[in-house]
Amino acid sequence: MNQTKKVVSKVAAIAFMSMGVAGCSSSESQPPVPEDRNCGAWDYDGDDDVYKCSDRSSSYHGSYYHAGAYYSNKNQLYDSKSYKGYRNSSSFKSSSRSGFGSGSHSSGG
Questions:
Q1: How far from 35 is each of 18, 30, 45, 48, 109, CA to CA, in Å?
Q2: 70 in helix, strand or coil?
Q3: Composition bias, kind Gly residues: at what positions (predicted)?
Q4: What is the distance of C-alpha 30 from the center of its chain?
Q5: Distance in angstroms (rounded) separating the CA atoms of residues 35 and 93
Q6: Residue 69 β-bridge partners
């Protein structure tokens, strides 16, 4: 994908997310996208509340990013003192989410 298409895709995604979608919870928001010169594209991992480098031209492609550091896999991320502290803090997102994709179900009567 060329650079123009990447920029257009990012702008469209941001515009869509800022409009909101009916039925989605807006009480939780993801952290800001990292501004790190070693990676130009990011995917958000909502389960662990971190970003993953998706820039194929970066040597950090596929690595998780937290508090200014890259981790090549989730085990390294989970083992880091910084991430352990974050996961145990009130800043970490609750595992009980609401809205689309929350995993909640209802049964008809």
A1: 20, 15, 16, 19, 50
A2: strand
A3: 100-109
A4: 6
A5: 21
A6: 66
pLDDT tens digits, 64-92: 999 999 999 999 999 999 999 999 888 77
SS3 content of the chain, % helix, strand, coil (to 5): 30, 15, 60
> Could you tell me how many residues make up the chain?
109
> pTM of the full predicted structure?
0.59
Backbone angles phi, psi at 64, to 5 degrees: -90, 145
Number of neighbours of residue 87 by Cβ within 10 angstroms: 15
Least Cα distance to 57 among 73, 32, 39, 31 occurs for 39
Q: With 0-12 CB in 10 A as exposed, 13-18 as middle and 19+ as buried, what is 76?
A: middle
Q: How far apart are CA 98 and CA 31, in angstroms?
A: 17
